[in-house]
Amino acid sequence: xxxxxxxxxxxLGLSDQTVYRAEAPCRLEPGDLxxxxxxxxxxxxxxxxxxxxxxxxxxxxxxxREEPARRIVxxxxxxxxxxxxxxxxxxxxxxxxKVLGPAP
Length: 104
Prior knowledge:
The chain has 104 residues and is α+β, with helices and mostly antiparallel strands. It has helices spanning 39-42, 53-63, 69-83, and strands at 33-37, 94-98. The protein is globular, with a radius of gyration of 15 Å.
């Protein structure tokens, strides 16, 4: 992981009443991957109440890093659902953006 983007607003949410502030631009290079997820992904809990966590989500992402973005999202969400034996209390949403190189 090269950079962690900070958020003080709803994850992946939009609201007409909320003011969203931009941080400094983040330069992306070909091969970079942007991974956004809601708290429901990291809050999935095992039977002994251990959260899946950001590391669980990143581990699932790394297993499929070379695959299309859609497949990475499917893998992360399935891994969180499989980990969580306790019914989820929140939605699980993830977005993956892959930065491609210049067109040939």
